[in-house]
Amino acid sequence: MKDGLTFARVVQVDQPALFFLKVAATFEGLYRCEAKTREGTGLSNSIRLSVVIPPSFTSVTSEPSPPVAFEGSRIVLICDVKNGSHLSYMWFFNKEKIKSSTSLLHSTGNRLVMENVTPQHAGYYYCMAWSSVEDKSRFSSSTEVNVEVKIHVSTPRISFSISKEGASYHANVTCWSSRGTPPVNFTLLVDDKEMTSVTATESLAATFPVTIKPDLKNTTQCRVKTEVQELMSEPVTLEVVPVGGDVKVEVEHLYRADSKLATTRLSCKVSRGTFPYVSWLLNDSVLPLTTHVDSCVQPVLPHYALVDHRQTLILNKLGPEESGYYRCKARDSYDDSGAWVESAAILVQVTDKLLNSMPRPTTSTETPPKVFMSTIEVITIIFCCTLLLILAVVVAFGYRMLHREQAHAHFATTNPSLNIIPLSALTSRSGGRQ
After folding, report:
1. Which of 64, 191, 323, 381 has the most C-beta neighbours closer than 10 Å?
2. Whole-model pTM above 0.90?
3. How far apart, in Å, are the Cα atoms of 201 and each of 191, 206, 229?
4. Cβ pair 222, 156 in contact under 8 A
């Protein structure tokens, strides 16, 4: 018998009473039997009947739904089973079993909880439900669900390039973010006025054409907006000043700690112009340096290097081939037919004195040489100075102690009245006083 459920059968004494049940889920619970005879009634102990239903129609649902959230949010996956009882659950991420829980990912019952999600949580998840009777198990797996983790967009930045068509100047202003998840909306502001907006669906950049006038300053900013963020870039001054004025070459020799020449740096200084294109000449021949105007650092021919948009020439080796008269010339990078302005030629020549020791102070067109010392060398010098100081203190202290001992011996020799008095004399003097 079971609460609310009773089965009865009449049997002979000493014969077991067998009950055959067509088990349903509602039959689960505690059972006991009661035996009645003419002499009385007996009640057995209770046993539990567990009705195990194999799982079927397993699926994964999520909170939020669909499982798409920004980094730092919370995502919960739920393993739903339409039919089944006495179930256990396993979770899989990118087809690999999730073996252990962490503070950011843990399973409870049929739920997989992801706290403070990061891009590493993104991927494909599915669950497996199973139930067992003795040594037999039945399984049911869900289909995969794709978890997407969106990255917060970074503060936008501005870059721009200039082009010239006839007498008109145009700027291509690019607003971009280094990280984030598209789509994002970019808005260009010029002098605090919104010009236009673009929604970037496949990238984190948008380009805006702007007409500008020479020698006129405009302040530009970019605004980026997502579902949960709105950020502004730092203001950038959009200004076009044609190249002109004086051009000169400054030379700087850089030395190692052993006073050997390391490199020679030549800088082309243009007094006027916001977008100069610089070309270098050695003995009136243009150096065959293959480069691009928008690059910051480019590898060129052996022993040469260009930095700062071609405005600085590095000579990694200074030999007879690299010696001669250097000069630079500049024009507007956006006007291939523009006029060049040139510097005066300056002699850069290899000498034994230049290669093996630091030269005298340079002229006004040269920058004084610099000596580079490593951290180990600096530490060594400091340690040696400290050691010398300690030795000086020890020597001074020892000398002072020796001087005091010599002075004491000299004082005792020159003053015999201070010699030690015999014990007999002290005794006689003491007896006399008595």
Report:
1. 323
2. no
3. 27, 10, 16
4. yes
